[in-house]
Amino acid sequence: xxxxxxxxxxxxxxxxxxxxxxxxxxxxxxxxxxxxxxxxxxxxxxxxxxxxxxxxxxxxxxxxxxxxxxxxxxxxxxxxxxxxxxxxxxxxxxxxxxxxxxxxxxxxxxxxxxxxxxxxxxxxxxxxxxxxxxxxxxxxxxxxxxxxxxxxxxxxxxxxxxxxxxxxxxxxxxxxxxxxxxxxxxxxxxxxxxxxxxxxxxxxxxxxxxxxxxxxxxxxxxxxxxxxxxxxxxxxxxxxxxxxxxxxxxxxxxxxxxxxxxxxxxxxxxxxxxxxxxxxxxxxxxxxxxxxxxxxxxxxxxxxxxxxxxxxxxxxxxxxxxxxxxxxxxxxxxxxxxxxxxxxxxxxxxxxxxxxxxxxxxxxxxxxxxxxxxxxxxxxxxxxxxxxxxxxxxxxxxxxxxxxxxxxxxxxxxxxxxxxxxxxxxxxxxxxxxxxxxxxxxxxxxxxxxxxxxxxxxxxxxxxxxxxxxxxxxx
Length: 475
Fold this sequence. Notes:
Pfam families: MatE. It is found in: Cell membrane. The protein is mostly helical. 82% of the residues lie in helices and 0% in strands. Helix 3 (59-84) runs parallel beside helix 13 and helix 5 (99-121) packs antiparallel against helix 8. It is globular, with a radius of gyration of 22 Å.
């Protein structure tokens, strides 16, 4: 079904694989970006449904998934951020017509992800320590620890799942990533329903069921991508079955260029998780309002990461082909697509904030009176925060497109510093607003949005300066 819809939007004749028939216009970007937007939307929906199901059990379970999942992402981020540069490296080799190196780079990323697993497991006690410092309710602490532990012990699945799409997004064939994500989402939603609520002989597992469902869904999408990677078509073109040798040169390049991206993601995710922890530290009402807001922020923002990946892929490809003008056009095309998407999200946030908040109302049959009371008190704050997020989503378009373009051009170190500075400034703004001046969660969220409004100025200035050209020696 998805294939049919996609083929009607973009007829087969425009897919000239391996040839740069386009020049960075909107159609060129959409060919790569639309499947990635859909792919990230499926991943988002998978996480969103997890939390939606858990919200029916009560705010504690929903907040536990947000808090535990957030710390998991932070601890993964150093590794997944470094791995993500695989897309840029693959796309650069594709542009330079070094096809066998595309597969070799991908394999080095797999080796790197497996090497990271023991170090990831060693961070589990650190996550427990973070939870102990939050002074959470006993119910949320227990659920949050359970959710976190299951995801961390299944870390090898999640790490390889992050590597698997990089090869296909790098070569610009993102439809298979979309299909794999869709399959993983379906499996996850089905498993979560049965595992969270129980069905027949399957016991009610609550947050543990949500974590297991996530791992199962990730495993399914990963298997699909690897089965495609080793298929005849990619064996013939890229030599995928002959790429298993360890290549020190390519691995070194991945580490040199990818680690700044990993550090950037770690610092960004740590700052974002700190925002969540500080909102949770303000009490159950603030925690619930923030959880509702950040769940909808995830729905709005994560698909934009697909646009970021597409921008990185295309800019990297044109960089490899020494086509600087086309790389520049890709960026502006990405901004136009992002603004159209954010306008649609903005309409929902503006006119339906109450409906969006009420989706997370606990079911009366499963929730306690205290849970319903907490939700009712949090609802007005959540509505205000959702409406204000309209501006936030518009700003995020600048952030993801320019950051993706700069990464594709190899300017990862600057992106690391700029992103970290902005995200930690937002965390500081929240602390000052909520903890020093003791303003309500509404004003704390407003302070965060104001900080993020610096993104268009900062990132556009860097791109317009043209300093990224020196990173790849484009003339």
